Amino acid sequence: MKAKAKWSLVLSFVLALSLVLAVCGGSGSSSNNNGKSSNKLAKDQTLNFAITADIPTLDPTQVTDTTSNNVVQMTMAGLTRMHNNKFEWDMAQGEPEVSADKKVYTFKLRDQNWSDGKPVTAQDFVYGWQRQNDPAAKPAYNFLFASVGVKNAAKIQNPDDPMYGKFQNLGVKALDDKTLQVTLEQPAPPFFYSILSQAQFMPQREDFVKAQGKKYAQTADSLLYNGPFVLDSWKKGSGWTYKKNGDYWNKAKTKLDTVNFKVVKETSTAINLYKTGKIDEVGLSSEYVDAFKKSNPKEVKSAVESGTFFLYINQKTNKNLKNLNLRKAINAAIDRDGLVKTILNNGSVASNSVVPAGFVKGPDGKDFRADTPDGYPAGDAAAAKEYWNKAKKELGISKLELNFLSQDSSSTQQLNQYVANQLKKNLPGVTVKINAQPWANYLDLNQKFQFDLAFSGWFPDYQDPMTYLDMWTTGQPQNTTGWSNKKFDSLIKSASTGTADVAKRWDTMKQAEKIMMADYPIAPLYQSGHTWAEKPYLKGLNYPSYGPEIDFSRAYILEH
């Protein structure tokens, strides 16, 4: 999602996407103390964010985007929690007891209450996990259970399997109120403990969910919390507010008392809020980066992230897009270097691959991208025209209109226009109709395949190439391309279940990526970067490469 994952998720979302600005800060003016701050905590520990998208959902079973994932990550506690790109034990007291065959993991749980005062039990984890695998709950991201190898998850999720929908057979059970036992199909993959921090593995309490019925997770009051914060209010379309959870077991590490999010779609508005001291951190889109580097050089920060952004190419409902040469033409028509330098200008780098560079190293100590550092062929106008001419001949067409689905934030609109212009310029006869939608509407249209091309991104759910690859297998909810390849599916299954031979698994994932990119079900665009301005008295804010996209659980504000 941020994928993340994050989540893992990937989430990361989600990570929101890199173009969904995350803006945060305190109540002080930028001119106070001439920009200097002490090392003493401010009395008012209030952090104010602005963000371009509202929360699509609060239901952990429905989370697919980074905005929703971030809310769940900050308000709920799973067995583990990600911090600074490493997992920590959260509801789990520590290392589980592991069986001799390394397939059964028995966790002891901490004493922790829900926000209504009732204790969190092992059965809450069992119900939460089972609900993620119950077709009646319409889970949107449950493939993670199969990815990590939870017993029977793959069968329960497969409509063609006799066990389909029988979530009671999932490999998880409560031995008592404080003991949770998880059974896997094979020894755990390297990312097992980190993936348990994701929204999909959070506990949910059965009596509360059923009492709420259709109202569950529709408001701040119709969800229970057991994490660092509780969601105090949510005004749909306007914003939401967190309050510190005084009952959280690790509350000593949470310094902030209040965190406010305000939906601000226009980048210029967010910039003005920063300049006037209403917020203390602001994501910088391309037109503001150079100016801020001149006026506030010490406040500007930049980092390359692990998010990958691309175009879905929908060959399920648009039969023309089943043509390989047409998909190759779309991929080759877009100049990635121009996109990242002139439109984004935020530290993002051009990308022609699925798994990003610098994300994870294999058993040989080399980055996954070492063999193909530049990815796969793209950004070649001459090749684009050649592929387009072949496609026209094969399809018997001379022109083509494409419906381009994207988000409606001001920064995304620049990208939308750039992509549309590139396609029209380099593929004569192609016209592009941009359909810019609010985030929740975008997700709905994407899942319903109501588009030809769709701009999207993926943040990792865990630190392993599989987080970018298994989402493209046949029938996965995130695979809104209609693409299906039996060899790819077979390789992903092999890499998911054959975890003992690490080197072989690594090579298998590389083979799978090559097969996918030879078919061009997507057009990779860039690996996300993040450039922002941050006041010196805001400390501890973290943008991890996977897990929550924005981790403010240990952020704090100094006197200023």
UniProtKB/TrEMBL annotation:
Keywords: Peptide transport, Protein transport, Signal, Transport
SUPFAM superfamilies: Periplasmic binding protein-like II
Residues in Solute-binding protein family domain copies: 90-478
InterPro entries: Peptide/Ni-bd, SBP_5, SBP_5_dom
Major location category of this protein: other
Compartment(s) where it occurs, according to its Swiss-Prot or TrEMBL record: Cell envelope
Protein transport is among the record's keywords: yes
Transmembrane spans: none
Keyword Repressor part of the UniProt annotation: no
UniProt GO MF annotations: peptide transmembrane transporter activity
Gene3D superfamilies, sorted: Dipeptide-binding Protein, Domain 1 (3.90.76.10), Dipeptide-binding Protein, Domain 3 (3.10.105.10), Periplasmic binding protein-like II (3.40.190.10)
Signal peptide residue numbers: 1-22
Gene Ontology CC terms, in alphabetical order: ATP-binding cassette (ABC) transporter complex; outer membrane-bounded periplasmic space
Name of the protein in question: Peptide ABC transporter substrate-binding protein
Species of the source: Sporolactobacillus sp. Y61
